[in-house]
Design goal:
By secondary structure, the protein is of the alpha/beta class. The protein contains 5 helices and 6 strands, in the order βαβαβαβαββα. The two termini are about 25 Å apart.
Length: about 170
Amino acid sequence: MELYLLRHGVAAGLGEGGVDEDAARPLTTEGVRKVTAVARGMEALGLTFDLVLTSPAVRARDTARIVARRLGLLGVLRPEPGLSPGARVPGVVGLLAGLSPAPERLLLVGHEPWLGELVSVLTTGGPGLALTFKKAGLCRLTLGRVIPGRCGELDWLLTPRHLAAIG
């Protein structure tokens, strides 16, 4: 499986625009601009996905929608409560392992710290890898199988600036 991990774009802070719940924070104008540039970069790379799962948080859903629209994948986009901001890596691994049929190319749109922790667990078997996902950063892993431990390799991690330059 090719597993792609995308962190949501820049979001409004709590209290901005009357938003008082973390899950309701929308992308800012800058966030929309950067995610749109990232989506163009993903299109230029020829990326496509069998399934796009997103955190139900507004900032992640909006990020996923921008990407899916650009890539013509709105039909395979779905929110997944298990990818919420407070998600824990064992739960995300269980979610991935339980997908049937298993997609060949899967995009998860979510949050730190679980995105970086997921990469660490799947590539090293533990939480020790120090990895920083920039907002709207994209990572690709190749997984032989999905287990709660070392089961894959990190192919690349691109910042929004890298992706914008490609697109």
